[in-house]
Design goal:
Helix 1 (about 5-15) runs antiparallel to helix 2 (about 25-40) and helix 9 (about 225-240) runs parallel beside helix 10 (about 255-265). Strands 3-2-4-1-5-6-7-8 form an eight-stranded mixed β-sheet, with helices on both faces. It is an alpha/beta fold. The chain is flat and about 75 Å long. The protein contains 20 helices and eight strands.
Length: about 450
C-alpha cells in the first residue's frame, strides 16, 4: 500500500535536498509535485487542498526558507502533516465491558468475514475468549466460511441455524457467551453489494438493542474513492468507532486511507494483509507516515518479531548455538518463524533503506524467496540423521542429496559453506553473550573499553 505515493514523495524530497537552499520558487515546485503525487494516489481533491494548505502555512511559519537545513525541515513538516492526516496516534480498541461487543460492518467483498476471524485470533492471542457470531443470514456460504475460519483459528463460533432474525441471533449469542465464559462477541453482520435501507435497518436494530463497544467498518483499501462515500454513509447512520483496512499488501495507491480519516474524523484502528489468517495489526499513523517517506518502521518490525518468535524455541536455538549443535532442523524452524514476519518485500519496506523502490524490493524478494525455497528442498532431501548432524555429510552423501534436490553439487556445497560460516558466527556471538553474563563480565567490559580507546582490537 502507498507504494506509488511513497516513491513519488521520496523522489520529490530527494530533488529538494539536492538544492543548497530553498527558495520560494523551488518551494512552490515541491508543493506542486506533492499535490500531483497525492491526486495520482487517489486522495480526494478536498483532502489534497487541505494538506497542501497546512504544509504551506507551517513552512512559512517555521521560516523553512531561512533554515540551516531547509530540506530536512520540509521533510519533518510533511511527515507531521501525513501523521495528522492518518489520525495522529494509534487508537486501541475499547473493550471495557464483559462481555464486550464488536460489530463488524461493510459491503460484500470487503473482507469482513475474514477480518472477523483475524480479529478473533488477535483477541485470543491477547488472552481474551472471543465468540464469532454469524449474522449474515442471507448468505449461507458466509456462515459456513466463518465456521471454518473459527475451527481453523481455534475460537468459539455461534449461529442459529435457519434463523433470519438477527435480533434473535444476538440475544441467543449473549446467552451462549454467558454459559461459555466468552469475553468478547464479534458480530459478523451481513454485507451487501451496495448500501440499502434494509441492511441499515438490521444494523440499527442491533445498535439500539445492545451496547456496542466497537462499530468497525471494514474497507478494502483497493476500493478507491468509492470507499470514502461508503465510510461517510455508514458513519452518518451508525456513528462508527473506527475502520479496519484490508489488503494493505495489494498493489494499491492507498489514497482512500488518507481520505477516509479526513472525511469521517474516525480513526483507522486495525489493518490486515493477505488472505492468510494472521492476527490484525494495530495501525500507527506516525509509523505509516515514516514508511511513506522512506524512513522505515523498525518499531513495528521488532514488535512483529517478538510475536513471531517462540520463546521456548529461541532458547533451544541459543543452547544449540552455544554447543555448536545448530542443525539443519534448527535452520528450517528458524526459517519458518522468519516467514511469520511476512514476505521479504514487506520486511524490506519496514527498513530505512534510501533509494530502494518497489521494483527493487520485489526483485530482491523474488530472488530471496526462490533461494530459500531451494535451500528448503535441499534440507528436505537429507535423511533425519543428516538434518540433525551436519558434520556427517561426506562426499557421497552430498552427491545423493544434490541429485534428490535437483541441484548441482556446486550449489549444495555453496550452501554448506554458507551454513558453516553462519554456525561459526552464531557460536561466536553466543559465546560473547555468555561471557558477558559471567562473573568476569565487569573485567571483560573494562578491557574492551580500554582497547577501544587505544584504537581497536589487536585482531
Amino acid at each position: 500500500m502507498f507504494d506509488s505515493l511513497s516513491e513519488r514523495l521520496q523522489d520529490i524530497i530527494h530533488k529538494t535536498s539536492s538544492n543548497s537552499s530553498l527558495t520560494e520558487e523551488n518551494m512552490a515546485d515541491a508543493l506542486r509535485e506533492i499535490r500531483r503525487a497525492l491526486l495520482a494516489s487517489d486522495v480526494s481533491l478536498t483532502v489534497v487542498k487541505s494538506f497542501i494548505s497546512k504544509i504551506k502555512e507551517r513552512a512559512e511559519g517555521a521560516d523553512v526558507l531561512r533554515s540551516v537545513k531547509p530540506s530536512e525541515m520540509l521533510i519533518k513538516i510533511v511527515s507531521d502533516e501525513l501523521t495528522n492526516l492518518l489520525g495522529e496516534k494509534n487508537s486501541p480498541l475499547k473493550l471495557d465491558t464483559n462481555p464486550s461487543v464488536i460489530m463488524m460492518l461493510g459491503l460484500q467483498g470487503s473482507g469482513k468475514t475474514t477480518s472477523s476471524a483475524k480479529l478473533a485470533l488477535r483477541l485470543k492471542n491477547e488472552g481474551k475468549k472471543p465468540l464469532l457470531v454469524a449474522m449474515d443470514v442471507y448468505r449461507p456460504a458466509a456462515i459456513a466460511q466463518l465456521k471454518t475460519l473459527a475451527d481453523d483459528t481455534g475460537v468459539d463460533f455461534f449461529t442459529v441455524e435457519g434463523s433470519k432474525d438477527v435480533a434473535e441471533i444476538a440475544k441467543k449469542s449473549f446467552e451462549f457467551a454467558k454459559t461459555n465464559n466468552n469475553t468478547v462477541l464479534i458480530f459478523d453482520t451481513a454485507g451487501r453489494l451496495q448500501i440499502d435501507t434494509e441492511m441499515m435497518a438490521e444494523l440499527l436494530i442491533l445498535d439500539k438493542l445492545y451496547t456496542i463497544n466497537e462499530k468497525l467498518l471494514v474497507v478494502d483499501s483497493m476500493t478507491g474513492q468509492e470507499a470514502i462515500d461508503i465510510a461517510k454513509n455508514f458513519d452518518e447512520q451508525l456513528n462508527i468507532t473506527g475502520v479496519i483496512l484490508t489488503k494493505l499488501d495489494g498493489d494499491t495507491r492507498g489514497g482512500c486511507a488518507l481520505s477516509i480519516v479526513y472525511s469521517t474524523g474516525k480513526p483507522i484502528k486495525l489493518i490486515g494483509t493477505g488472505e492468510k489468517i494472521s492476527p490484525l495489526e494495530d495501525f500507527h499513523p506516525d509509523r505509516m507516515a515514516n514508511r511513506i517517506l522512506g524512513m522505515g518502521d523498525i518499531v513495528s518490525l521488532v514488535e512483529k518479531a517478538q510475536n513471531a518468535f517462540n520463546e521456548k524455541q529461541t532458547k533451544e536455538f541459543e543452547l544449540n548455538i552455544l554447543k555448536n549443535k545448530f542443525s539443519f532442523d534448527d535452520f528450517l524452524k528458524l526459517q519458518k518463524q522468519m516467514k511469520m514476519l511476512g514476505s521479504i518485500e514487506n520486511i524490506l519496506g519496514m527498513l530505512p533503506i534510501p533509494g530502494l523502490n518497489k521494483d527493487d524490493r520485489q526483485k530482491i524478494s523474488h530472488e530471496g524467496e526462490k533461494h530459500f525455497k531451494k535451500i528448503e528442498v535441499m534440507i528436505n532431501s537429507m535423511t533425519k540423521e543428516e538434518r540433525a548432524n551436519p558434520d556427517i555429510l561426506n562426499a557421497s552423501r552430498k552427491k545423493r542429496i544434490a541429485n534428490g534436490a535437483g541441484v548441482s553439487l556446486n550449489e549444495l556445497n555453496a550452501f554448506m559453506t554458507q551454513f558453516e560460516t553462519m554456525r561459526k558466527m552464531m557460536k561466536g556471538f553466543g559465546e560473547l553473550k555468555n561471557n558477558l553474563k559471567g562473573p568476569k563480565a565487569k573485567q571483560k567490559a573494562s578491557l574492551m573499553a580500554k582497547m577501544k580507546q587505544k584504537g581497536g582490537f589487536p585482531f
